[in-house]
Design goal:
Blueprint lengths: L9 H14 L6 H11 L4 H14 L6 H13 L3 H14 L8 H8 L4 H14 L6 H13 L3 H14 L7 H5 L8 H14 L6 H10 L5 H15 L10 H13 L5 H14 L1 H4 L1 E3 L10 H11 L15 E3 L48 H9 L6 H45 L1
Antiparallel strand pairs: 1-2
């Protein structure tokens, strides 16, 4: 809490507010709420966004009337859109799990003239009815998804469908299949994320069938959403359980390395590669605990992750949704004993996907000297004329041979001169005698 004092900069206070909100999640602490509210009232965009979100985390699921009225009133008064977006998430968290009790708040927000507050109303529906599959709530979201004049509100409405149906993921493809073909690109993006949220970790073929054509969508952020949703569905899967896994993993790698691909799509592919290999491939995304209850941190993490649309660093909240799938056994000395487990299934059923290997460098082969077709014909006839490179070599040889011949001639001439001198000397000696 000392990190959110006024003496620190905006960046530190921003992180301090988020950390404090996560640490005190669902605590309903009036002291912490007041501390965060004081940071909100500084009216600084960066700090205020985090403070508004953290206030909702602290009062999560309480439907506290005082907190709601203060947050909604400040959202209507502030001039900073970042603060407004942070408060929209915070208000949604306060309504978490309240079902029909949250309807008055939802109705007032849904009718507000400000599009961000209407978007907040859609998130409130998703949080208040999370995991219930309530038909009236789904009907309300579908109506807004096709009727609101603002694209952000429509996108939020479709995404919230994923939160309602995570306990019945088999229903989600049927609900959003038509929305995935909408003329509105924001609705298509929302449909992709709704599938990823509700069907996370299931490897559901029906969801992948809807998402696969969306990966080739003409709009860059729709392709990004399709990649993210595909990774969320395929987390903790292998080729035995999902034969298309290798195809999608190769697609992620290809998109990341493609120089001509859009930056936004590359960002989605990089995140997808991280999601599908989360926790050393020992984690999955699930909003249900092992006992079947709703896992609140997972819901929080996924909702804030959807706001990566507005600010990329919020993608780190996805870590809250990861749940370990490994078993660690320790004895009384906290040492790991040797254990053996019998599995009647084939090893391929639970096998890890193969590790990515770096591309091997190909050895460069020496290219042989090219021979022209005309040269080949003349060689066949025995009247070949060598190429320019060969001519230069032959000229050098000829010059060397000519030098050798000239040297030999000089030596012979010198020998002849010596022999003639010897003869002359012999004749002179005879004459003197």
């Amino acid at each position: 809490s000392t990190g959110i004092n006024a003496e620190y900069g905006e960046t530190v206070r921003h992180g301090g507010c988020l950390g404090l909100g996560l640490a005190a999640m669902t605590s309903n602490s009036a002291e912490i709420y007041e501390l965060l509210r004081n940071n909100l009232y500084l009216d600084e965009a960066v700090t205020g966004e985090a403070a508004g979100l953290a206030m909702g985390l602290v009062m999560m699921g309480s439907l506290d009337e005082d907190a709601l009225s203060e947050m909604i009133q400040y959202a209507q008064d502030t001039q900073h859109e970042k603060i407004l977006r942070g408060l929209s998430l915070g208000i949604a968290f306060v309504c978490y799990g309240q079902l029909e009790a949250a309807d008055p708040t939802i109705d007032s927000l849904s009718k507000d003239k400000d599009s961000v507050l209407r978007m907040c109303g859609m998130y409130c529906v998703g949080m208040a009815y999370a995991g219930t599959g309530n038909n009236n709530a789904i009907r309300r979201l579908l109506h807004v998804a096709v009727s609101d004049v603002n694209d952000d509100v429509r996108r939020a409405a479709v995404i919230s469908i994923g939160f309602l149906l995570f306990n019945a993921p088999e229903q989600c493809p049927n609900v959003v299949s038509l929305l995935a073909e909408s003329y509105n690109s924001h609705v298509r993006y929302g449909a992709a994320l709704a599938l990823g949220i509700s069907c996370a970790g299931s490897g559901m073929k029906e969801a992948l069938t809807i998402l696969e054509p969306m990966i080739n969508d003409p709009v860059n952020y729709v392709r990004q959403g399709a990649l993210l949703a595909t990774a969320m569905i395929l987390v903790q899967q292998n080729e035995h359980l999902c034969p298309k896994l290798k195809h999608f993993k190769d697609l992620f790698a290809k998109t990341m390395s493609d120089k001509h691909e859009d930056v936004m799509v590359k960002f989605g592919a990089i995140l997808s590669q991280g999601i599908i290999n989360a926790g050393g491939r020992n984690c999955t995304i699930s909003m249900r605990s092992q006992y079947g209850h709703t896992n609140i941190p997972s819901v929080v993490g996924l909702l804030v992750f959807t706001h990566t649309w507005f600010w990329f660093p919020l993608s780190h909240f996805l870590c809250l949704a990861f749940q370990p799938t490994y078993l660690v056994g320790l004895n009384s000395d906290l040492n790991m004993p040797k254990m053996k487990f019998k599995s009647c299934a084939r090893p391929s059923t639970y096998a890890y996907p193969p590790i990515l290997e770096p591309p091997k460098e190909k050895e460069k082969e020496k290219v042989s000297t090219a021979i022209l077709s005309t040269t080949a014909k003349k060689l066949a006839k025995g009247r070949a004329t060598p190429m320019e490179v060969d001519e230069e070599k032959q000229d050098e040889k000829k010059k060397e041979e000519e030098k050798k011949k000239e040297e030999e001639k000089k030596k012979e001439e010198e020998k002849k001169k010596e022999e003639e001198k010897k003869k002359e000397e012999a004749e002179k000696k005879k004459d003197e005698a």
